[in-house]
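User: Need the bound-state model for pyridoxal-5'-phosphate:
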Amino acid sequence: MIEANRHADYGKALRAIDREMLGPEAAARVTQMLELLPIHRATPLRALADVAKTLGVQSVYIKDESHRLGLGSFKALGGAYAVVCLVLEEVGRLLKRNVAPSELLDPEIRSLVAQMTVGCATDGNHGRSVAAGANLVGCKASIFVHDNVNRERVDAIARFGAKLIHVPGNYDDAVAEAERVCRLEGWTIVSDTSWPGYERIPRLVMQGYTAMVTEALTQLPKPPTHVFLQAGVGGFAASVAANICLTLGTARPKFIIVEPDRAACLFESNRVGKPIKIEASEPTVMAMLECYEPSLLAWGVLSRVADAYMTLRDEDAIAAMNQLARPRDSSAAIIAGESGGAGLAGLIAVMRDANARTMLDLNATSRVLLFNTEGATAPEVYRKLTNLDPAEMTSMADPI
Ligand SMILES: Cc1ncc(COP(=O)(O)O)c(C=O)c1O
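Assistant: Bound-state model below.
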């Protein structure tokens, strides 16, 4: 299913705070901070020439985030970056001066940082990023995981020394519990979703993602005409769309927001014209996109710049994972986790539907940009869905 953006704000300029926080200048500051990390490298942008030819568009490129900072998803950029920013702010407040990121190695500063605790709810990837950020700077982390977070993803968080707190229910239940406990304990909540009165930190998380967008725009031979963006609470899609709009201005592409049909909170919010919480239903295979309430902050961006919202069946997401894993031409395989290939699945679904193609002006002149937002962040699940071993595939693919 696909529907055009019908919100009254559609086409309006982004809010001043989003322009300031999500534009190219902000992205450059994030990149500067990333460059302090020896492990940082731009992720590859790969051409899907065979896919473009089969679908009848001029080009398809996919920004491959499957190895970002060794954490397996683009989320590595958001939570960890926000933790570093918040710790710098807090130490600066205690010492009554600006503290540079390089000072985080200073033992005196580290002893102050060691007193701090950050917390968040997660489907898996955001918690891993927050835990990695806390581990890097030396503060404590408490990560709230719900019933549907797969064991492998929980273990990956625990490896960073974070405390894991189990919450019965789904992602939205974990968000509510994380908020309650962090407030009670005086911990800093580093959420990737926002709610009334809590926007500054999620905006920092989204700011972290913008470094990836600048990389993609620099790597592309020509700017895209269409971008398919998978969404959970919408933070990823909003960050990418805002940064591209602020970089390309009126030459901006069309943005199509892709959600699982079992957790389409942005799609439904667009239908009613305001952000709504939808009923939780059966879990979707796209576990990272299983969110039932949009981030308010993301909604503020997407209601202005998203061109269309679409839903996706689980089987289409699995087919896209397999297609990326087994390219029909000689290009290297791309390891896309359950939520990673959703953008490609969205493009394929639209190209099969003549009305959707016309609505979006997708034709032989279109240049499509996609994001593989995660690799095999749950290797067992990946093996089950593709019959391939991601460990063996990593050695086959080009090094990053
Ligand atoms: C791999 C992956 N893709 C996409 C998303 C969607 O991001 P958001 O919840 O900001 O919409 C997530 C969120 O966790 C993710 O982990």
